[in-house]
Design brief:
Order of helices and strands: HEEHEEEHEEEEEHEEHEEE
Shape: elongated
Number of strands: 15
Structural class: alpha+beta
Largest sheet: 4 strands, mixed
Strand content: 25-35%
């Protein structure tokens, strides 16, 4: 993904260092401060094992997203008061420019960015994304290197990110963080077919992959994915996910029984089943509600069934 050079703006992080440090010093004095101006700036711990936050009072006009982006990029490149925190934009690489268009903020880094270790790069992206999406008008953040897409460890473009890209990793030890790509099945507009969606995430490996898939299904498709719709009620709770002899047992609360849209019963069931069977550890799936399997889902599907993959419902996106 390249940047539009006509609207690309040069960022010189060190130029605003004095102003930024002064603003950081004011963070502790919150009297008479508009709460809307309080942002959580994300840094990297000096031991490079976690992302940490510090409050910052925005000086820019809250109605001007461009001005806020420039200010936060300056802050992210300036050493904070707490010296045990490392600014994500002060690691030997430079921001060449950025583009903000229709809620998507793309940061273009120079070639030095590629020299970051995998843990450094993951933490850097997490800090940048979590900080910048707080700006009203910024929904997603992307990273390019010299105008070229940033690739993940699997060789695929990382694409646009928001806070949901980084699953339960704030404060995690670096050796428990991993970048993965999962395949989820959501419904088409008619509710009679499944559409496969690939999603790249950074997550804490203390969370099982099976639970990660189940929880991502509940979250549903992102707004970046067109013509794809959720299958599960967003209020559904994943009570437990276990595996035994290749069978994945998914226990959901009663909200699972509440129909979300016009998705057929089969489409809902196999969105769960097919998504989980994409994992190499899963061959079959059984779904329970509050621990019970003697449930007739939507009066048609018996949940006592141990389900196998069904690709007959999969359709191509329009």
């Amino acid at each position: 993904m390249g940047l539009d050079m006509r609207i690309k703006r040069k960022i010189w992080v060190i130029c605003a260092a004095v102003l930024t440090v002064g603003a950081l010093n004011a963070c502790g004095r919150r009297e008479n401060v508009d709460e809307d101006k309080i942002f959580l700036v994300n840094y990297i711990s000096n031991d490079e094992v976690k992302v940490v936050t510090q409050e910052y009072t925005m000086q820019a006009d809250l109605t001007d997203p461009q001005e806020q982006v420039e200010e936060l990029l300056s802050v992210l490149g300036t050493v904070p008061e707490r010296l045990e925190y490392k600014p994500p934009l002060a690691q030997g690489f430079a921001v060449l420019g950025y583009e903000l268009r229709e809620g998507n903020l793309i940061l273009d880094m120079d070639e030095e960015y590629r020299k970051l270790s995998v843990p450094q790069e993951v933490l850097t992206r997490a800090a940048l994304v979590r900080t910048l999406v707080q700006i009203e008008g910024v929904q997603y953040v992307g990273v390019t290197v010299s105008g070229q897409p940033l690739m993940d460890s699997l060789g695929s473009p990382i694409g646009m990110m928001n806070t949901d890209t980084f699953v339960d990793n704030e404060g995690s030890q670096i050796n428990s963080m991993e970048q993965v790509r999962i395949r989820l099945y959501f419904t088409n507009e008619e509710g009679n077919g499944l559409i496969a969606v690939n999603r790249t995430l950074v997550y804490n490996t203390n969370l099982s992959m099976e639970r990660l898939v189940a929880e991502q299904l509940v979250l549903g498709p992102t707004s970046m994915t067109k013509n794809v719709y959720p299958t599960l009620n967003p209020e559904t709770k994943v009570l437990s996910v276990t595996i035994n002899d290749g069978i994945c047992y998914v226990n959901l609360n009663e909200t699972f029984l509440t129909q979300l849209n016009n998705a057929s019963a089969e489409v809902v069931i196999y969105s769960v089943v097919n998504s989980l069977i994409e994992l190499p550890s899963v061959n079959k799936v059984q779904i329970s509600v509050n621990g019970k399997t003697d449930v007739l889902y939507r009066e048609t599907v018996n949940l006592s069934t141990v389900f196998e993959r069904n690709l007959d419902l999969v359709v191509n996106p329009e």
